[in-house]
Amino acid sequence: MSYLETLLNFTSDEFVYISGRRRIGKTSLIKKVLEKNNQPFFYFFCSKDLTEKQLVEQLVCEINLQLVDYLPVPFSSEQFH
Length: 81
Fold this sequence. Notes:
Elements: H1 2-7, H2 26-36, H3 52-66
């Protein structure tokens, strides 16, 4: 957790790869660090059971809900084509 918090202070962009078994808290760890440090973030889970069109529709909906304070205008699915 402290390593991830250190990365938040970097002035350059960084890529961090986190791996591990399923259901051990990888996503929760990342979300907790970002929330604790008041960092805006966007989380979207991609289900294998949905078609590409359904995923795009859900993604657009989530972008508009979660990033409303950061978007000048609502996002639309046409922007993916």
